[in-house]
Amino acid sequence: MIKKARGWRWITAALAGTVAVAVAATAMAWSGEERERSGRVPVPALPAPQGEECIEDADTMRRQHMHILDEHKRDSVRKGVRRPERDLQACVDCHAVREPVIADQPLTPRQRLAFCANCHSYSAVSLDCFACHSSEPGAAVNEGNDE
Amino acid sequence: MSNEQRNDSPVNAGRRRLLGGAAALAGLTIAPGVFLVHASVPTRPEGTPASDQVRWGMLVDTNRCRVDCDACVTACREENGWEGHDRPETDAKWIRKMTVTERDGRQTSLPMMCQHCAEPPCAYVCPTGATFRRDDGIVLVDKHLCIGCRYCMMACPYQVRFFVHEPVASRSPNHPRGKGTVEGCNLCVHRIDQGVLPACVEACGERGQGALIFGDLNDPRSRISRAIAEYGAESVRADLELDTGVRYQGLS
């Protein structure tokens, strides 16, 4: 019995140590500067969106945006369910860059949608949406910005 | 140089003022009618699917349609962003004007676009299910599934489907277009879902001859149903029994 209890104590101590090391390592990895230096590819810089909040929180959007878009695509194209806030155009309206990167030069689609393109290129996932869909923000949003 | 001189002359300035006034007057008189027409497209609440209680259709009065008018074609091109490359055999023409000459020399002008059949041959032959008929009767291409095989173009008896052969330079937010997919008239589905008339119908009422009526074929009280009940209407190639959503008056 005594032997067994000693063994448990030893295992508990080892576990606590491991957890402490893991927490410290994670904290270091995610602190800003460490994160920048952690990989060979720099973490993408994302332009700030125009709107106040997205349809879901940032973590959900980061992981689920493709599924949300896919579901909405099927609903809207095939069944005619319109939810303008979930349209790809709504993403563009909010996330597209509006100010020219080089003065007096029109933005290329890649520059305009740096929000999408930078992250997709970082994660090596091809971005096909804008082979067909417009990458220009809608007129209504432009009017809103001018005010 | 000669243009500038002409513009500066006082006579022309006077004429311009007169024309401007006339245009403004026309705008005023047209506006109430247009408003009434707008209100005739029933809307459905956001977030609800298209219903099979409704069947959208269009009625073309060929007695009003004129050979020299292409307001509908211009409006469609602007709304949906399709353009040509000066290659008439392959260029997209979601809607085109046709002139039918009878044996006695009488000419009839009519717009030809997707007829939105109840039994669409294009949808039957589509190997991927990209072409489909929405519950409210609009025949559409789901370009996410289209592989560009062009069977639908061969099956369609009206020749109103087009293949995008080249990269698309500029896109309309209203309608995504991409190389390698088939496209055609979608009855301005984005406008209908907002309760607005298709661009061609609106343009025909404002700038054209008022030859197009849009509405619900299932509703006996709608303007289109009353016009069909009163004067009759027929399909082009009625012998194929496709039950088209686009009907014509004054063809025969």
Could you give the topology of this structure?
The complex is a heterodimer of chains A (147) and B (252).
Chain A: H1 2-30, H2 32-38, H3 58-79, H4 88-95, H5 109-112, H6 114-122, H7 139-146
Chain B: H1 2-8, H2 10-38, E1 56-61, H3 71-80, E2 95-101, E3 107-113, H4 121-125, E4 131-133, E5 139-141, H5 151-155, E6 161-163, E7 182-184, H6 189-192, H7 199-206, E8 212-216, H8 223-231, E9 246-249
Parallel strand pairs in B: 1-9
Antiparallel strand pairs in B: 1-8, 2-3, 4-5, 6-7
Keywords:
heterodimer; A: about 150 residues; mainly alpha; disordered C terminus; B: about 250 residues; alpha+beta; two-stranded antiparallel sheet; 8 helices; disordered N terminus
Structure description:
The complex is a heterodimer of chains A (147) and B (252). Chain A has 147 residues and is mainly alpha-helical. In chain B, 31% of the residues lie in helices and 16% in strands. Chain B contains eight helices and nine strands. In chain B, the strands form four sheets. Chain B has a three-stranded mixed beta sheet with strand order 8-1-9. In chain B, helix 3 packs across helix 7. In chain B, 35% of the residues are buried. The N terminus of chain B is likely disordered. At the A-B interface, helix 3 of A face loops of B.
Order of helices and strands of chain A: HHHHHHH
Q: What string gives the helices and strands of chain B in order?
A: HHEHEEHEEHEEHHEHE
Low-pLDDT runs of 5+ residues of chain B are 1-11, 18-39
Number of helices of chain B: 8
Work out the helicity level of chain A.
55-70%
What is the average per-residue confidence, as pLDDT of chain A, rounded to a whole number?
79
How many helices of chain A? The count is: 7
Tell me the overall shape of chain B.
globular
Q: What gap, in angstroms, lies between the N and C termini of chain B?
A: 52 Å
- Most extensive interface: pair and counts? A-B, 18 and 25 residues
Largest sheet of chain B: 3 strands, mixed
Q: Span between N and C termini of chain A?
A: 78 Å
Which radius of gyration of chain B do the C-alpha atoms yield? 20 Å
